[in-house]
Amino acid sequence: MTTVPPLVMGIESSCDETGVAFVRGCELLADEVASSVDQHARFGGVVPEVASRAHLEAMTPTVRRAAERAGVRLSDVDAIAVTAGPGLAGALLVGLSAAKAYALALDRPLYGVNHLVGHVAVDQLEHGPLPKPVVALLVSGGHTSLLLVRDLATDVHLLGETVDDAAGEAYDKVARLLDLPYPGGPPIDRAARDGDGRSIHFPRGKWGDGSYDFSFSGLKTAVARWVEDADRAGRALSVPDVAAAFQEAVADVLTRKAVDACREHGVDHLVISGGVAANSRLRALAEERCAAAGVEVRVPRPRLCTDNGAMIAALGAEVVAAGLPPSPLDLATDTSLPVSSVLAG
């Protein structure tokens, strides 16, 4: 007799996307996202108070849309997973409060899970169960981390992380220097297609220091100086060339350290996730270097790379399957929740 996996509702609200999804095992039934990115664009970055208010307005309608898309009733839900951290304090609080209300009203267990580990778990909805162990490269606007994942629910180890700007943050800042729209990732990627990544050699932070840490602040400064020098000298600035050279520097460091981590730990699978994982050059270079190293690379489709409820529901399904105890209803948010803590509290 086949056992039907539990139906898990996932709620994500760590930054500027309100995400709600329904997952059964590794099957994604529905994934709805309401983004407030347009409200932040004129500021060139996320404004926490604006994000929190947007979550308040979007939460209930997004839950309703997701349930309708999945063809389920809320009373069908077996467990509720929610991002408890890391993230923006006010934004996290909206999602956690909503999840607590649903858990209490439906009398269902609540699981406060780690946003970063969710980015790894979501790949299972695209490519099936993850091998054990796996190395995960997480690249987003707020985080750049390299992880060794032996078990999604119980054993996630941080190998290295950015010591300053995250990769996505550097994209946003460089886009502003080049008069490109916010968020900076997609417009830089588009501009780079017409440029020559070898035309300018920008520095590779922490390139050969023997660690798995990253640094993109110096790269951002180098681009700023290049733009300023061109302006002072009256030289025409080739935005495509600068974009391509910047992007090459980012992808070069990320993929080199990720492949090195796979080799050192004897791992033959690499997962790349987070918003920057949608970048075309990062994907192409990762596939090239992984193929040469005998490593299989897995990258979720772009919609699953950005923040969404599917990743939280996917991780919740893993936690439930592992038999871990639910979170208490007085669970607090943790804006700096370490990646090794899959469950908060």
TrEMBL record:
Molecular function GO labels: iron ion binding; tRNA N(6)-L-threonylcarbamoyladenine synthase activity
Cofactor: Fe(2+)
Compartments where found: Cytoplasm
Keyword presence, tRNA processing: yes
Family: Belongs to the KAE1 / TsaD family.
InterPro entries found in the cross-reference section: ATPase_NBD (IPR043129), Gcp-like_dom (IPR000905), KAE1/TsaD (IPR017861), Peptidase_M22_CS (IPR017860), TsaD (IPR022450)
NCBIfam families assigned: gcp_kae1, T6A_TsaD_YgjD
Acyltransferase recorded as keyword: yes
Residues annotated as binding Fe cation: 115, 119, 307
Comment on bound cofactor: Binds 1 Fe(2+) ion per subunit.
Domain of life: Bacteria
GO biological process: tRNA threonylcarbamoyladenosine modification
CC annotations in GO: cytoplasm
Binding site for substrate: 138-142, 172, 185, 189, 279
Transmembrane segments: none
Leader peptide range in chain numbering: none
PROSITE patterns, per the entry: GLYCOPROTEASE
Keywords: Acyltransferase, Cytoplasm, Iron, Metal-binding, Transferase, tRNA processing
Recorded catalytic activity of this chain's protein: L-threonylcarbamoyladenylate + adenosine(37) in tRNA = N(6)-L-threonylcarbamoyladenosine(37) in tRNA + AMP + H(+)
Protein's name in the database: tRNA N6-adenosine threonylcarbamoyltransferase
UniProt xrefs under Gene3D superfamilies: 3.30.420.40
Record-listed E.C. numbers: 2.3.1.234
Function: Required for the formation of a threonylcarbamoyl group on adenosine at position 37 (t(6)A37) in tRNAs that read codons beginning with adenine. Is involved in the transfer of the threonylcarbamoyl moiety of threonylcarbamoyl-AMP (TC-AMP) to the N6 group of A37, together with TsaE and TsaB. TsaD likely plays a direct catalytic role in this reaction.
